[in-house]
Amino acid sequence: MTDPRQSQSIFTRGAVDLGALAARGNATAAQRPAAESTPGTPAGANVIEVTEASFQQDVIQRSLTVPVVIDFYVAGSAPDQQFSPLLAQLADEGAGAWTLARVDVETSPRLAQMFRIQNIPFVVAIVGGQPVDAFNQPLPEPHLRQWIDAVLKAAGIEVEQPEDPRLLQADDAMADGDLDAAEAAYRKILDETPNDVVAESGLAQVGLLRRTDGLDLAAALAAADKSPDDLDAQLLAADVEVLTGEADKGYTRLVGLIRRTAGDEREAVRKHLLSLFTVAGPDDPAVAKARRALASALF
Questions:
Q1: Residues 178-183: contacts with CB within 8 Å, 24+ apart?
Q2: How confident is the model at residue 222 (pLDDT cuts 50, 70, 90)?
Q3: Which of 17, 35, 167, 269 is deepest in the core (most CB within 10 A)?
C-alpha cells in the first residue's frame, strides 16, 4: 500500500518499534499523578490529542478496533492551520470508521524521535497495532481521501464511496448538453486525480456525443452496411451502436474491421475501439469479452 502522491514513507527509513513506544508510554503514565494521566478528549471521539503517556491506550489499543491516523504537527505552523483541519474534517465525516490522533512534536519529542520525523506534516496510519503507511507532505483533498480509503481497506473495512461533487457537476453539464463545460470539468478532475476511471469514462462519452451530434442514426447504420470497407462509416456505425445500447455489436464490428485492415488504418480502428471501451468502463462484461476478441485479432 502506498499513498497517492508516493511521498517518502517512514518504512523506507527503518521500522518503527511500537512495542518500545508502548512500554515507554506505560512507564511514563505510571509515574504521573492520576489526575494528569487521562486525556481531556472523550473516549470514542473522532479527533483526539495524544501524548506519550496516552499513546498505548489511544493509539495502539484503539487501532486494534479501528484504524488510527496520527497527525504529527507543530502548534501554529502552516500545516497545523491549513492541512490538519482537513484531516479533522475527514475524520468527522468518517463518523467513527477511523480516528485522527494529533501529536504535538514539541510537547511529545520522544514520539517524534521514535517515528524519525524530519518534517511536518507527517501522517502515519496504524492498523492492528502496526504502522501500514505514511506520507510527509500535504496532499490535495482528492488524494487524501484516496489514501484514507486505502487505509480503511487495509483494515478490512468496506469503503462506501461518496458521490464526488466534481463528477456531479460534470455529469450535469453533459446532461444539459453543454459538452464544452462537461469536457472542461472532466479534464480538470483528471488533472487533479489522474486515472480516475469515472472521469475518463465521462470524457469518452463527451467525445461520443460530439461525433454523433445531429446524426441520422438509422442512415449511419445503413451506410455502414452498404460499405463494409469504408473506415469512417464503420467507425461511425460503431458509435451509433454504443450510443443506442448495442455496444456488443459495435465492438464486434470494429474487431472484424481490425481483422480486415493493416497499418495506420488498423491502428486508427484499434484506438477508436479502446475509446468505446472507456465509455463503458473496465468492469463491463461486454468490454472484457471484446478485449479478448481484440487480442485474438491483433495477435
A1: 179/206, 179/209, 179/210, 179/213, 182/206
A2: very high
A3: 269
- Diameter over CA atoms, the chain: 91
Task: Could you list the beta-strand ranges (E) of 176-250.
Answer: none
Cα–Cα distance for residue pair 28/224, rounded to 1 Å: 80
Tell me the per-residue pLDDT of 9-68, one tens digit each, with 9 for 90 and over. 333 333 455 555 555 544 444 444 333 333 333 334 689 999 999 999 999 999 999 999
Question: Model's pTM, two decimal places?
Answer: 0.52
- Residue 270: pLDDT band (50, 70, 90) is very high
Q: Are residues 179 and 247 in the same domain?
A: yes
3-state secondary structure 105-167: CCCCHHHHHHCCCCCCCEEEEEECCEEEEEECCCCCHHHHHHHHHHHHHHCCCCCCCCCCHHH
Q: Looking at the 3D structure of the chain, how many domains does it have?
A: 2
Q: Are residues 16 and 146 in the same domain?
A: yes
Residues 145 and 14 in one domain: yes
> Cell 475524520, residue?
91
For the CA atoms of 199, 272, 281, 283, the dihedral, rounded to the nearest 10 degrees, stands at: -160
* Other C-beta atoms lying within 10 Å of the C-beta of residue 23: 12
259: containing domain = 166-298
Find, among 21, 9, 75, the residue nearest to 53 by Cα: 21
* Amino acid at residue number 164: D
One domain for residues 131 and 192: no
pLDDT, one tens digit per residue, over 120-135 is 899 999 999 999 899 9
Residue type, 166: R
- Give yes or no: residues 136 and 174 share one domain: no
